[in-house]
Amino acid sequence: MTKTSVVLVTTTPDYPVDLGPVHEVLDPVAEVRTYPLPWRPATPEEAGAFTQALAEADALFIRPGIITRAMVEGAPRLRVIAVHGSGVDQVDVGAATGRGILVTNAPAGPAISVAELTLALMLRLVRPFQQAADLVRQDRWSEARLMGGELCGRTLGLVGFGLIARLVAGRAAAFDMRILATDPYVAPEVIRAGGAEPRPLGTLLGEADFISVHTPLLAETHHLIGEAEFAAMKPTAFFLNLSRGPVVDESALVRALRERRIAGAAVDVLEEEPPRGRNPLFEIDTCLVTPHLGAATWPCLARTARYMAEDIARVLRGERPVNLVNPAALGAAGGFQISD
Asked: Checking DSSP bridges between strand 59-62 and strand 197-198, what pairing results, if any?
């Protein structure tokens, strides 16, 4: 392979990429270019400019941005789209598959960071240390001695039992929590081996003190948690979503919180990111909203960038990538040929 390949990396100040590992892995074999594609859907002008840049690329390293069918179809040289993290819902995978373009992800990259944030948010829900710190800064020491609860002895219900949820389970076990999990794609014995008790979704919702969602966004998981699911939760339960915003019916969550049908919530993702206007969740004092911070750690960026760059290099060498999302693309007419 000669250094005639072009790798296009989307990155912006609010969605940075650790370019060190990218250059280390790819500079010997390709020219690395960066492009400031926004996280939100591109305007027609932005989409047109990006499609022009993508037309010269053999590989796309995507962090922010929504990759549409038109963008894919306007990229005649493209062999691989590598997605920063585990979810690939920002890419039209069907369009890529139809053109024989491989789609890869890096599920192990953000897993530790997202799992740790999940535990941090759980602690924040039961211990009001942020409010206490704010009151101390206002010289209101006595008022700042706010009462809270504990994680020890409480039941955590995990919706989805992939890598991130399994890491959450291990960390929650260190707090002496009881762990339940539901996942139609994971066998009960695998759930038990991961330290959790398998449960149907409805049963889990009624038993758990904390319900934490860790599922990919698929057609079958859109609004997986809605009015009926919040109604099944205990009034003392806390709800967390660190997967994708549309997995939860946000209006149903707003109603459950406003009517005090659950004790509180912490969400790192929203149905619309960034929100246009004032999201109702921002006005609810029992809801903590963070701006999709799950993967926002330096170790995560370094790991994820390296995993992605290594898979891109494999594809450019004609090898099968480790984290291939759409194996059907290997057999697509006109698709890139991978050696055995």
From this structure: unpaired
**66: Cβ contacts below 8 Å, ≥ 6 apart:** 39, 40, 41, 42, 90
**What burial letters (b/e) apply to 30-63, b meaning 16+ CB within 10 Å?**
bebebbebbbeebeeeebeebbebbeebbbbbbb
Domains of the chain: 5-105+297-331 (3.40.50.720), 111-289 (3.40.50.720)
Beta bridge partners of 41: none
Counting runs of H as helices and runs of E as strands, what totals does the chain give? 12, 12
Active site residues: 244, 273, 292
Q: Among candidates 290, 279, 238, which has minimal Cα distance to 260?
A: 238
The pLDDT profile of the chain, 340 residues, written as one tens digit per residue, is 456 899 999 999 999 999 999 999 999 999 999 999 998 899 999 999 999 999 999 999 999 999 999 999 999 999 999 999 988 999 999 999 999 999 999 999 999 999 999 999 999 999 999 999 999 999 999 999 999 999 999 999 999 999 999 999 999 999 999 999 999 999 999 999 999 999 999 999 999 999 999 999 999 999 999 999 999 999 999 999 999 999 999 999 999 999 999 999 999 999 999 898 899 999 999 999 999 999 999 999 999 999 999 999 999 999 999 999 999 999 764 555 565 4
- Residue 99 near residue 119 (C-beta atoms within 8 A): no
Query: Is the bond leading into 274 cis (omega within 30 degrees of zero)?
Result: yes
Task: Return the H-helix or E-strand segment holding 83.
Answer: strand 80-83
Write the CB contacts of 313 (distance below 8 Å, at least 6 apart in sequence).
25, 26, 29, 30
Cβ(17)–Cβ(39) below 8 Å: no
The full DSSP string for 110-130 is HHHHHHHHHHHHHHHHHS-HH
Q: Say if CB 78 and CB 55 are below 8 A apart.
A: no
What HEC string does 90-101 produce? CECHHHHHHCCC
**Cα 228 to Cα 289: distance, rounded to the nearest angstrom:** 22
